[in-house]
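For the sake of clarity, the format in which proteins appear in this thesis is described at this point. The record quoted next illustrates the convention:

___
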Amino acid sequence: MSKQHIVITQLFNAPVEIIFNLLTDHESFGRVINTKIRRVVDSKGENKNGLGSVRRADIFPLPGFEETVITFDPNHLMEYMITKGSPIKNHKGQMEFFSDNGKTRLKYIVDFEPKLPFLFLGTVLKKAIEKPLREGLLRIALKYDTKV
């Protein structure tokens, strides 16, 4: 199996609180990446999208899968992993947020392995995951860019 690694960095001309809340809210994150995502389990903590919350993603033509938030540090870090379904295994997503003079820098890392042993499958899945993430994050960055 080929382990896949995605790293995306994006700068937003908006405070970290705004970008953190936008990207860690399950439903709004789905709109960012143009995918149907809904929260199926609320966190028991203060933020319903926080630690222990579960979101379901339905990405045609793939079967739906669930991701569980495993780390939630407001305005700094959210980590999640796939806990049900999906053609990938050993998946972990990490969004790390940095505040810089009223702007936000995001470092988004996704690691996974395909479940099936086809050599090309990892590359295909990587492109399928990375493209909507990059495009969605850029769209949000442009929305908050006051120069546009």
Q: What stands out?
A: The domain at 4-24+68-144 is CATH 3.30.530.20 (Alpha-D-Glucose-1,6-Bisphosphate; Chain A, domain 4). The two ends are 43 Å apart (CA to CA). Residues 121-144 form the longest helix (24 residues).
